[in-house]
Amino acid sequence: MSRSVVGWAGFFLMVAFITTTVSPAVYADPPQSPNYRFDETTVGSGDLIQSSSANFQSSAGAGDLAVGGAASTNFQIEAGSQTTNDPTLSFSLNNFDVNFGSFSATNPTVTTANFSVSNYTSYGYVVQIAGTPPSNGTHTISALSTTGTSQTGIEQFGINLVANTLPVSVGANPINGQFGFGVAATNYGTSNRYRYVSGETIASAPKSSGVTAYTLSYLVNVGSLTPGGQYKSNQTLIVTGTY
User: Fold this and answer.
1) pLDDT digit string, tens, across residues 49-90
2) Are 185 and 201 in contact (CB under 8 A)?
3) d(Cα 162, Cα 225) in Å, to the nearest integer?
4) Domains in the chain, ordered, with CATH?
5) What's the mean per-residue pLDDT of the chain?
6) E-assigned strands of 97-241?
7) Which residue in 34, 121, 143, 160 has a CA-CA distance of 20 to 30 Å to 130?
């Protein structure tokens, strides 16, 4: 005899912030020749990185022609009178308690979480996700180990990082603004197709990037024989700078 299943899932996204440690520090080589070397190259009407005397030291700049980033396939520049050459990686998790409400064997359940990443003067970053699918005691809802679509009545747990129209309208494509270069990973970047493999890369940037805002779309389907009760799942987002 089959029966309806009602469950509750609370999702807590724990954040692990990881940056690559390199000793000694390595940066992109500045323009140089046997006789000259340019540190923090300046283009503009006036810019002074450091000036000093026996008693004073200052950093100053004037007459910026442009502020921000620009890039092509082979080159990238950060414009502005005062820009540090220290690599920086920033991560923000905007909502960490994700509630599915009630599960149903006849209707898929979806919800979202949001995070953002930016990095400066590095060679990009990768975002990985790790953790277990929703579980209730000894029963764990099956994760989509291969990329697939929502199928009602069959146990499924999956995510992606793009806008979807099926099984309902949910999620959003990565938002890069003016200077972001973040993208969803191939396995998690196709609309209406979901997947979850712990440890996989879900997003990345191939170069120094401004803020990219990501939306994680979660999908859960249960079957008529899925045990009722409270289901919980913990995921960890791991953001690693690439230098």
Assistant:
1) 556 666 666 655 555 555 566 667 666 666 665 556 677 899
2) yes
3) 31
4) 7-21+89-241 (2.60.40), 28-84 (no CATH)
5) 80
6) 97-102, 109-120, 125-131, 135-136, 139-140, 156-160, 183-184, 201-205, 209-221, 229-241
7) 121
